[in-house]
Specification:
Among the domains are: 124 residues; 125 residues, 2-Layer Sandwich (Heat Shock Protein 90). 69% of the residues lie in helices and 10% in strands. The chain contains 10 helices and 5 strands; from the N terminus they run H-H-H-H-H-H-H-H-E-H-E-E-H-E-E. The protein has a 5-stranded mixed sheet, with helices on one face. A hairpin with a 5-residue loop joins strand 4 and strand 5. The longest helix has 90 residues.
Length: 386
């Protein structure tokens, strides 16, 4: 119901009123003129029904400047006038005809139509030889009726205008809502695509890179040190299993595999230990403060930053010393990854990995900082609210 136009909703009520007035008028006419002129007037009045249903109904409450509406009102004036000329009692139908004019054409034209509809009954009255008092009474009553009808018609015209504006506004709002829904859907798809790209970069891509490096190292030791080659292959197999677990976690939308059922500090300690095993470098892990559970978002961000930071050390730093510090403070948790490697300049700080870390940290309201100079190593610092 709320989606229907006001005129469509009230059309049945108006037509019921019109029908009651028409039936009452015909009964009144036939009561005074059961034959002859009464039957002719009744026939003329009945013609107004198909005239309305087939022609006038489509314009009711719609565009008041439509030519068809004016043609319908003109035909209505002719039919009502002809019926009134045949039987004066037919004028009763004006109670239904007059409101239609204001629903179909503009206010000024409706007032003119109202005068024309009442012209025939007025002429018959004045030709009837009424006394002065009756004439004055008739004129006063006519002025009152026309004045009230004009006021009522102006109100109807305002309702039509507001209904039209409302219909247009609703159409615009529905269009805008559909456009916003499409934009929101596209934004959601893009955000999810970016999220998945970051997850794949920080997990699967890093894992494959690590596996490739371990396999290359194992190949170098195959002939001269089989034990070391087997150790490198074992590390590659373990990394592959962990990568598979990460892939399954991504598909199932579960927490990162390195966390599993363990705490964040344990997961960061394992990542640091793996760095030590894979590269044979000094990798120290330091924990300060009292470890505690954080929000899922904060733990995932810190874990991913640790993975990405250590992966960058593995691929680019050529470091001999890596230091990882995780500090729990009352209102925040701070992660710092420092190496003594080759470092990099400002241009290299705009890579996808660092950008992804900065985006992740920003999503949980944290602070991200990278400090590096060529030949002076790199320090990555992240602090997130606890």
């Amino acid at each position: 119901m709320k989606d229907d136009d006001a005129w469509d909703w009230g059309l049945g009520r108006w037509e019921t009123y019109f029908g009651l007035v028409l039936v009452s008028t015909i009964m009144y006419v036939l009561n005074d003129h059961p034959t002859g002129t009464g039957l002719v007037a009744t026939g003329i009045l009945l013609v107004t029904v198909p005239w309305y249903v087939l022609f006038g109904r489509r314009f009711l409450g719609r565009d008041t400047s439509a030519r068809g509406a004016y043609a319908y009102v003109g035909g209505l004036i002719v039919l009502c006038g002809a019926a009134a000329l045949t039987a004066p009692e037919s004028s009763l139908v004006l109670f239904a005809a007059c409101p239609q004019c204001f629903m179909l054409v503009r206010w000024r034209e409706s007032v003119a139509a109202l005068v024309l509809l009442n012209a025939v009954p007025a002429v018959r009255f004045f030709r009837g030889g009424a006394d002065a008092g009756t004439v004055v009474s008739f004129l006063v009553w006519t002025v009152v009726v026309i004045g009230f009808s004009a006021f009522f018609g102006l109100w109807i015209e305002r309702i039509i205008a507001q209904s039209t504006e409302r219909r247009e506004l609703i159409a615009q709002l529905e269009t805008t809502r559909a456009e916003l829904a499409e934009v929101s859907r596209e934004a959601g798809v893009m955000a999810e695509r970016e999220r998945m790209a970051g997850e794949i970069h920080d997990t699967l891509a890093q894992g494959f890179t690590s596996i490739l490096m371990l396999l290359q190292a194992a190949d170098a030791y195959v002939g001269r040190d089989p034990e070391e080659a087997r150790r490198q292959l074992g590390l590659a197999a373990r990394t592959a299993r962990e990568n598979l677990a990460e892939a399954r976690a991504l598909v199932a939308a579960q927490p990162p595999a390195p966390l599993g059922g363990s705490s964040l500090d344990e997961a960061v300690a394992r990542l640091t230990g793996r760095m030590r095993e894979e590269l044979g470098v000094t990798a120290d892990y330091t924990l300060t403060g009292e470890p505690r559970r954080l929000t899922a978002g904060a733990e995932v961000v810190l874990l991913r930053v640790a993975q990405e930071g250590l992966a960058n050390v593995r691929r680019h730093a050529k470091a001999d010393l890596v230091e990882v510090r995780l500090a729990y403070a009352p209102e925040s948790v701070r992660l710092e990854i420092r190496d003594d490697g080759v470092g990099f300049g400002p241009d290299a700080a705009r890579g996808f990995g660092l950008h992804g870390m900065r985006e992740r940290v920003g999503q949980v309201g944290g602070a991200f900082d990278v400090r590096s100079e060529p030949g002076a190593g790199t320090t990555v610092t992240v602090e997130v609210p606890a």
